[in-house]
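Private note to self, pasted from the team thread so I don't lose it. Backbone tokens:
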């Protein structure tokens, strides 16, 4: 049987980085293919080529046995290849129905047929199994709901090949279960599905076949019944993964670092009280819309609070005003859920993103000291183990996991004392997850009181604890590598 889509000898290079090396791949109708690998392993590069976003340096793509060169994503989409990318791309000012039908609004006599568009959008949402008000502006939806809108848009094309890149990263467990059922139902109807996910528990439930990428190459192909989840993880990492003991907290005697009293907002929070000790990692759990994100944004000063107070260990107090700049200066930093939209500047170099929150500390007389900037970037790179060709590359060129490490480095460099993390491992592979968890544990161990970025403009470049920035980097690097600082997959 001819594969619905296949790749032969695909290769792609970005500067000195080989993102894809001589990859062969076949996709048959009615099967779900899990694409597994660490961030930067080559999965996303293959997805971009199959979806018409990029072209290979060498090799070819065949559709139903015939060679094809996709001119652009629209060409691939109209050829039956629908892709739902990990990062959200809805138009906030348009309604749910308009976003589902985006790019192909039905019209009559040159006038948009809103009734017809609403009917088709409702049909796509029904196929997905979700209920959203069709007239709600997409910008008013939660991230998870926006992702469902994107998936509904792809399904509305009735594709022969559906590519899902981390489709459940922002969904609740029940929403994810529903999506997995939809994927299996589509496969039973003859749709070929490429499923990219770092959630190992999903792979056993949804996939027929598993293809593992490492360093731009395909290193293994298996039917799902031939391999265990642990073996897949080991193939991804290139080595057998070891059990990670739970981290033991040492925060009991360090005093309160953050105190939240009676925090209220007009929409979600109803008098939240919270205390966090220095060196303590506190997990906030709840369903989407329960207030997890809202409390972090209120503490960070991004959203106004109608009542309540936030107090730090040194006695600094904040009311309900939106005063992000003052809170960053006091040592409060937020790693947002939407890293591309709110955490980094995509068209700026990696180095610039790393120092974005500590420019005053690496500047002299109003000008950035390039030597200090490079030294800070090098220390951050070493401590976070970011895989990068050059610090001058745009941060958009990095994989999702490495982009998240850049966001963490920026927050640490700001001189953070209270680090707020909203879904810090969303869309991140298992190896990068453990590295990020260890990075967080290392910060907690140091009571989050030092920075990789110098806090004064003197020539000594001392940090808040009096150690040099390079010493701080080595300290964090040791905390990443030392088994004593490791813990379970949920900090």
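Design output:
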């Amino acid at each position: 049987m001819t594969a619905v889509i296949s790749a032969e000898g695909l290769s792609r290079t970005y500067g000195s980085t080989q993102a894809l090396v001589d990859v062969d791949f076949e996709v048959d109708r009615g099967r779900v293919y899990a694409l597994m690998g660490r961030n930067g392993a080559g999965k996303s590069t293959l997805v971009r080529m199959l979806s018409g976003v990029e072209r290979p340096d060498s090799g070819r793509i065949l559709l139903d046995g015939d060679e094809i060169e996709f001119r652009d994503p629209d060409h691939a989409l109209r050829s039956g290849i629908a892709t739902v990318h990990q990062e959200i791309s809805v138009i906030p000012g348009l309604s749910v129905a308009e976003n589902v039908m985006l790019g192909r609004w039905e019209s009559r006599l040159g006038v948009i047929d809103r009734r017809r568009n609403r009917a088709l959008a409702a049909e796509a949402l029904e196929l997905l199994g979700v209920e959203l008000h069709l007239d709600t502006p997409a910008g008013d939806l939660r991230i998870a709901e926006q992702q469902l809108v994107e998936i509904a848009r792809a399904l509305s094309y009735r594709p022969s090949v559906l590519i899902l890149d981390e489709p459940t990263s922002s969904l609740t467990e029940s929403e994810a279960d529903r999506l997995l059922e939809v994927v299996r139902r589509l496969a039973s109807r003859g749709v070929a599905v490429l499923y990219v996910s770092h959630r190992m528990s999903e792979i056993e439930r949804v996939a027929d076949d598993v293809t593992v990428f490492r360093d731009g190459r395909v290193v293994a192909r298996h039917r799902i019944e031939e391999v265990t989840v642990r073996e897949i993880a080991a193939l991804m990492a290139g080595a057998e993964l070891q059990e990670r003991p739970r981290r033991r907290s040492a925060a009991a005697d360090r005093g309160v670092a953050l105190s939240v009293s009676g925090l209220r907002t007009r929409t979600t929070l109803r008098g939240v009280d919270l205390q966090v000790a220095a060196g303590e990692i506190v997990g906030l759990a709840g369903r989407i819309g329960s207030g997890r994100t809202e409390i972090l944004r209120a503490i960070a000063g991004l959203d106004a609070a109608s009542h309540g107070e936030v107090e730090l260990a040194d006695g600094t107090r904040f009311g309900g005003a939106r005063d992000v700049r003052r809170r960053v200066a006091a040592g409060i930093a937020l790693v947002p859920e939407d890293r591309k939209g709110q955490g980094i500047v995509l068209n700026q170099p990696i180095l610039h993103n790393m120092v974005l929150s500590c420019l005053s500390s690496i500047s002299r007389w109003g000008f950035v000291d390039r030597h200090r900037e490079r030294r800070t970037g090098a220390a951050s790179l070493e401590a976070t183990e970011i895989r990068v060709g050059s610090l001058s590359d745009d941060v958009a060129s990095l994989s999702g996991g490495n982009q998240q490490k850049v966001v963490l480095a920026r927050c640490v460099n700001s001189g953070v004392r209270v680090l707020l993390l909203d879904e810090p491992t969303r869309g991140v592979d298992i190896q990068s997850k453990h590295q990020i968890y260890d990075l967080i544990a290392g910060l907690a161990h140091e009571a989050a009181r030092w920075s990789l970025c110098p806090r004064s403009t003197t020539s000594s470049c001392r940090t808040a604890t009096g150690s040099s920035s390079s010493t701080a980097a080595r300290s964090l690097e040791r905390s990443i590598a030392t088994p004593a600082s490791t813990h379970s997959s949920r900090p």
